[in-house]
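ok trying this again, last paste got cut off
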Amino acid sequence: MKYQISKIFNFSASHILNGLVADHPCSRLHGHNYAVRFWFAADVLNYAGFVIDYRDLDTIKNYINNSLDHRHLNDIFEFNPTSENIAKFLYDTFKLQFAQLIRVEVSETPFTNAFYAEN
């Protein structure tokens, strides 16, 4: 794809990661200030010169604000709420609505990043 854009959404949430040894710090209740970056791409820009209008992404913002922000992620998801699993879930959730979506990145800290992409 010739053109790519991204937008970051933020939320704060807690989780417990299952399947870890008992003394692993992530096996205990803890929280993060998440940053989720959605990437969009197109070979050709739309009539206004955009890959996608950022205002069209309000459904993503609303989902994150209403469903994830200040929640316990183990209560929201039916899977182990790792960054990798959350990235894939968000990609799958919004891909049908946004054909231009090519990648979702989830960061728990400024130093860690997981992503799910179509290729």
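PB: full thing came through this time. The mean pLDDT is 96.
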